[in-house]
Amino acid sequence: xxxxxxxxxxxxxxxxxxxxxxxxSVWRAAAWMEERLSLDGLEALAHSLGTTEQELTExxxxxxxxxxxxxxxxxxxxxxxxxxxxxxxxVSVIARLTRWNSEAEFVRDFQRDYGIxxxxxxxxxxxxxxxxxxxxxxxxxxxxxxxxLAFLRSRTIPGVEEVTESEYRRTLRIIEGTEAYQGxxxxxxxxxxxxxxxxxxxxxxxxxxxVRAIIARLFDxxxxxxIIHSALAxxxxxxxxxxxxxxxxxxxxxxxxxxxQQITVAxxxxxxxxxxxxxxxxIETPYPTLTRLFPNAETLAAATQDQLGQLGILRTRIxxxxxxxxxxxxxxxxxxxxxxxxxxxxxxxxxxxIGDWTAHYIAMRVLKWADAFPAADxxxxxxxxxxxxxxxxxxxxxxxxxxxYGVMQLWHRLANS
Length: 417
Description:
two-stranded antiparallel ribbon; alpha+beta; globular
């Protein structure tokens, strides 16, 4: 990947988390910047990614031939262009969302860079008044949207998520500084244009760049499937377009992984639903099935052994849930893609009740580590016809650095055998 790739991304694409060679601290940093439209906190981010701010800046300029500040300006303009072309948001709102100091400054800078006023980008169309925000996100084909829906459908948390034949919807809470924003979103596919269509509640407007990035990670939109399919050639039979689902709420996804230890997917779904119903908070949405927000870290950390035990959760898993919640409270980069993954996996394995399988599953879906590999997973071993995790690791060595995509292939093969 080169700087021209970065600059020429369409407005409907998000910056990929990884370079074509796999995990990359500089590409992760660029995606972090795009999500926040800010470089505040770059030093702390660099440390979390296992480097220094100076080294990260040097790598950034070498990779993109641009300074971080120039990349940030390009990202702000790119998101502004998408909002101008796809939404009915006013220019003043767009200027605020893309972090200009004023509408006048935004219009002046836009005209200077593009030679036209921002309004000139707006297509001529019938304006349908609606507070709901509509956006699209693009992907590279092949992309099996329905396989991803099937994976999410079997793991939906009642009250928090719903999956229909053609749509995914859920509630969402985002913390930004001292403010908590909560709302909902729904996702469907525009297959004819290689895009997903997003409907986002107006309550989430102040954190729209983050919502957009969360959805892109949930549906794994930034990867190049050709590179991955080439790496998985030893599988012989590859189902085209499989992706690794992310997690909208990192702690929720991690807790769901803990609850799924050594029980069926359906049983884990039941337990997660009890947690949401008894410890989560209520929310109003247009969908009668979406009524709950999953509990936050403060609530889960404060929940007693008795409270969680009464929901049917075993003591060792309660300890794991407490450890994950406390980690998120202590470290703003905990359970995010902005952690050096091997160090994060090692840390999680020090928590009571979290072993290699759980740590790697969380790394796959929450940390978005493309090389995560839960080698002892039953589905992985069964699909490979092996008995031991060491054998599975040896068999998957040629898949690096995309082993998590191999796992999805094996799980899909097992589910459809």
